[in-house]
Write a structure and sequence with these properties.
The structure holds two protein chains of two kinds. A six-stranded mixed sheet of chain A has the order 6-7-8-3-9-10, with helices on both faces. In chain A, strands 2-1-4-5 form a four-stranded antiparallel sheet. Chain A has helices at residues 2-18, 20-25, 78-85, 108-118, 134-138, 150-160, 176-187, 206-221, 233-238; strands at 36-47, 50-62, 67-71, 93-98, 101-102, 119-122, 194-198, 225-229, 241-246, 249-252. Chain A contains nine helices and ten strands. The longest helix of chain A is centred in the N-terminal third of the chain and has 17 residues, at 2-18. Helices cover 36% and strands 24% of the residues of chain A. Chain A has a single domain (2-252), classed as Rossmann fold. Chain A is globular and about 50 Å long. By secondary structure, chain A is of the alpha/beta class. Chain B is of the alpha+beta class. Chain B folds into two domains: 24-74 and 261-396, no CATH class; 80-254, no CATH class. Chain B is 58% helix and 17% strand. Chain B contains 13 helices and ten strands. Chain B has helices at 2-14, 16-19, 28-39, 41-81, 98-108, 164-170, 228-242, 255-297, 299-307, 312-348, 353-356, 359-388, 392-396, and strands at 82-87, 112-126, 129-137, 147-150, 160-163, 177-180, 183-191, 205-208, 220-225, 249-253. In chain B, helix 4 runs antiparallel to helix 8 and helix 10 (312-348) packs antiparallel against helix 12. Chain B starts with a helix and ends with a helix. The chains are: A alpha/beta, B alpha+beta. The interface between A and B is large, with 39 and 41 residues. Chain A: One of its GO terms (cellular component) is plasma membrane. Chain A: Residues 36-253 form the ABC transporter domain. Chain A: Keywords: ATP-binding, Nucleotide-binding, Transport.
Chain lengths: 254, 398
């Protein structure tokens, strides 16, 4: 088995070299400060004649192991905020800090690398690939990375979310709650600093939703920050902190 | 870089499930592309079938056209290399003067063999019967004839060369004797029938030395040239030299007609290939459509891939590989079917193996296959580019 360990050691540094945030932040300072922060972020969309300001100077930070729930009415800019936190979009002005490093100026490839290494995503409609098994779905973020440990990590993670006996099941053979737990395992495959969840309980009934939120609470205990965007008041019961976004302006609720 | 490669190698060796995929594990795009294609086998199969038909059309039409041209060239080859110079009968000449013969021989020097020929007709008798035959008198039969039995001499001094059908009618063979106009000739060879279309047909003829004829002034000179080009040169030069002031001889040559025939077949071939190309382009549109459909269908999935950290380039590469795989699969299928068609051609038509296995036919296979792959790639590029460049935010918006 030493033959298997050796190349794994060889590949690990190669992988983190590609990871822009930890590389930029320096090895030992990584993940000690605020993992993800928005500083005076403005986002506006130009749609023809009118300009829509979705975020009007938002300051927001999440600490390690913290569970933050972002609430707000539809059209308040919640999704925009989540997209900016997840490096899926760039702000019109302001800073998006990953471990204190401004990621707003990253180009597409750098943002993609940062997303893979630093951020996990959980979506309302799960977005699992039906043709792949649970384990394969969990390893999806690593398929192009030649990561020899990914499969083992995926199996551990599925074990952890209580799907140890469903490793080779396909999404169509799983219930909604199980699917969302596969999605949570997928979000954790690259040991991210932050997991972003968009309405994670939106397609689940109350009991299943509770079980999924308990998983998130577990994730937080591992030192990972969780940010959810939701309408579901149930989420707030599990959150350490609740903020509300109204018309592009953020304020603390609890 | 090398560390990364070792890692991938060790992984496929150590991990049983992944090891099965072997070398493929090193090319995740290929692995993913294969997996994506096998997710909707029917659709992938139909898309590849389009390419199969296109490649089959180009390859078979190309090869069949080429085979037609090659066989025609084979059949007509001899005619193109012959020039026949005969006296101008309209001017009352019946034989060629020694000066005419010498001129033709001089012109043909180095470009072919000039064979002066006396022609006549007579009753040929043998112990078992008699028949009428064409008589040719010439001294250098080897330039024009080949033997079925016996041997055709380089210089013909005595004896008779008997054409195939004459020999069969009279039941003679080398060693027998025939009698022509009171003279006895020993048969030295039976001449083989030629495939060539030529005014000099040995089958119904008896070839004698020129001396055997009372009137030995040649009535024709046959020039067997090395190539069609040489033949046209000889024909042109002879016309120029002998017919400059008066029309002394008539020159018969078919190499220019052969050129026209070749030109025609070339055209026919290009036309057939163009027909095949149309079907391949239709197949390309089908692949374009399939790729566009499948990327649109997988829009959310591709969005997730991009969101969770898969690079644009990897998505693009995977989708292009998908199109290329369809092209390669379809191309191989087309090549296979073409080979079957060629075997059938060989089996059910009198076309010979030498023409069918001509290397130029292989070129059509290669061209058709490559064209199939290129068309698939070209059709896959736009859908792949479009899908890979979509912002994940847009792809994931419900």
């Amino acid at each position: 088995m030493s033959g298997r360990d050796a190349p794994a050691d060889g590949t690990a540094p190669g992988r983190s070299d590609d990871s822009t945030p930890s590389g930029a932040a320096g090895g030992d300072t990584a993940r000690t400060g605020t993992p993800l922060e928005l500083v005076d972020v403005v986002k506006q969309y130009d749609s023809g004649a009118e300009t829509v300001r979705a975020l009007k100077g938002v300051d927001f930070a999440v600490e390690r192991g913290e569970f933050v729930s972002v609430i707000g009415p539809s059209g308040s800019g919640k999704s925009t905020m989540l997209n900016l936190l997840g490096l899926l979009d760039v702000p019109t002005s302001g800073e998006v800090l990953l471990d204190g490093v401004d990621a707003a100026t990253y180009d597409d490839a750098e943002r993609t690398d940062a997303r893979r290494e630093y951020i996990g995503f959980v979506f309302q409609s799960f977005y699992l690939i039906d043709a792949l098994t649970a384990t394969e779905n969990v390893t999806l973020p690593t398929v192009y990375e030649r990561d020899p440990e990914a499969r083992a990590r995926a199996e551990d993670l599925l074990e952890r979310v209580g799907l140890g006996d469903r490793l080779d099941h396909r999404p169509t053979q799983l219930s909604g709650g199980q699917k969302q737990r596969v999605a949570i395992a997928r979000s954790l495959i690259n040991e991210p600093a932050v997991v972003l969840a968009d309405e994670p309980t939106g397609n689940l009934d109350q009991d299943t939703g509770t079980a999924v939120l308990e998983e998130f609470a577990d994730v937080c205990e591992q030192g990972v920050a969780v940010v959810t965007v939701t309408h579901d008041p149930l989420v707030n019961e599990f959150a350490d902190r609740v903020v509300e976004l109204t018309d592009g302006v953020i304020r603390d609720v609890r | 870089m090398s560390g990364e490669d070792e890692g991938a190698g060790a992984r496929s060796g150590a991990d049983g499930a992944e090891g099965r995929l072997g070398v493929l594990a090193r090319f995740p795009s290929v692995l993913m592309a294969r997996r994506n294609l096998s997710r909707n086998r029917l659709r992938s199969g139909l898309a590849a079938l389009g390419i199969v038909i296109g490649v089959l059309a180009i390859a078979t039409l190309g090869i069949f056209g080429n085979v037609l041209q090659l066989s025609a060239t084979n059949e007509l080859g001899g005619i193109g290399n012959q020039v026949i110079v005969s006296p101008n009968e309209d001017a009352g000449r019946e034989t060629l003067s020694p000066r005419d013969v010498a001129t033709v021989e001089r012109v043909a020097e180095g470009r072919g063999t000039a064979v002066p020929l006396v022609t006549d007709g007579a009753i040929v008798r043998a112990p078992n019967g008699e028949t009428f035959a064409q008589l040719y008198g010439l001294d250098r039969p080897r330039a024009l004839f080949t033997a079925r039995e016996g041997r055709v001499p380089e210089f013909h001094r005595q004896g008779a060369l008997v054409g195939e059908s004459v020999a069969d009618r009279l039941g003679v063979q080398p060693g027998s004797a025939v009698e022509i106009e009171g003279q006895r000739f020993r048969v030295i060879a039976v001449l083989a029938e030629t495939d060539d279309i030529s005014p000099i047909q040995p089958s119904n003829a008896v070839v004698l030395p020129r001396d055997a004829f009372a009137q030995s002034a040649p009535s024709q000179v046959v020039v067997q040239a090395g190539s069609g080009e040489d033949a046209s040169y000889v024909a042109g030069t002879v016309r120029e030299r002998l017919n400059a002031r008066e029309q002394r001889v008539s020159v018969f040559e078919l190499s220019s007609i052969l050129d026209r025939i070749n030109e025609f077949f070339g055209l026919l071939n290009a036309f057939l290939i163009a027909l095949g190309a149309v079907s391949l382009i239709v197949a390309g549109v089908a692949i374009f459509n399939v790729m566009l459909m499948s990327t649109t269908e997988r829009r959310g999935e591709i969005g997730v891939l991009r969101a969770v950290g898969v690079q644009k380039g990897d998505v693009l590469r995977t989708l292009v590989v998908e199109a290329a795989l369809l092209g390669v699969l379809g191309g191989l299928g087309g090549v296979l079917l073409t080979l079957l068609a060629v075997v059938a051609l060989l089996q059910f038509t009198p076309i010979g193996a030498d023409v069918v296995f001509d290397p130029s036919n292989g070129a059509y296979l290669v061209v058709a296959f490559s064209f199939g792959v290129v068309i698939s790639l070209a059709s896959g590029l736009y859908p792949a580019y479009k899908a890979a460049n979509e912002e994940p935010v847009d792809a994931l918006r419900d």
